[in-house]
Amino acid sequence: MQRRAFLKGAGAGLGLAAAAVSPAAFANGPNVRWRLASSFPKSLDIIYGAAESLSSRLNAITGGKFQVRVHAGGELVPGLQVLDAVQNGSVECGHSASYYYVGKNMAFAFDCTLPFGLTARQQHAWMVAGGGLELLRELFAQYNIVQFPGGNTGAQMGGWFRREIRSLADLKGLKMRIPGIGGQIMARLGAVPQTLAGGDIYPSLERGAIDAAEWVGPYDDEKLGFHKIAKNYYYPGWWEGGPQLSFYVNAGQWKNLPPAYQAAFEAACAEANAAMLARYDAGNPPALMRLLKQGVKLRAYPKDVLMAARKASFELYEEEARKNPTFARVYRNWKTFLDMENQWFKVAESPYANFLHYAK
Ligand code: CA
Description:
The chain is α/β, with parallel strands linked by helices. Helices cover 52% and strands 14% of the residues.
């Protein structure tokens, strides 16, 4: 009882301290009203929800002084043009996946993911404590943007296939919905990658225009219903082992914010960043169980596919590094970090996790 009373007293003390500090920091500050352009539809509720989480926490922390209105992909600007909109200031901020912009510079992929790259844990470590954030901010500064980590889906699934893939040879001529660098690697392995928006995948798979499609993981894939047509559900999504989403802020707008507003924004981003992975880790297992009950077959990518895809990926990075100095600069740091992380993770994390996964 005494302990409970003490804790209650301590909590009240903290509350008082916060109350004494935070409203004063914002009470005399300006009313800031921003618009956020998301790249994502509301149906991807966990990813889209990160921007809503940022908005509601910012509102709470600042006592309503700093409000951000979230707009779904396409409402203000097309989903794949969020970076451009933040860069030119037509919106103050955005939420996107930086690998959408590899056409501008392939180095943008490091702010999201590359095939056989960092896991979600490792990406977070690189951004927070490995120098990744600082390196990438140099790239984003050239585009008039300050960026913040804005969530991670964790390792994605490797897609839905109408037919089983028994070896590398089965990929020859296979038409698969897989965008970005993952698609480029699939092409090097003989497949025919297609870029299709979320809503176009199911009809294409249904009428046989494509043989396979990747999306995210069980939680999101279940809603699009791919399992009704293609029963072979492959893992892992080696092109997205820990894809990070990002919040973008126009550099001029960021500079004009009072320091307390900047701190509030940064804290709200960090919270949204952590919550996304938690929501996926909690939502994916029951969704996978429901899919398996409907006859879905879980299948691992054959080893020769993984080996060939990994080789093709690092060949592509080395080629890009030879012609793109920005890519080379980030890549060297990232690759050293990736190799070090994997030396460590194979000692403690992976054996521990593997033991738990298979212990009976
Ligand atoms: Ca994906």
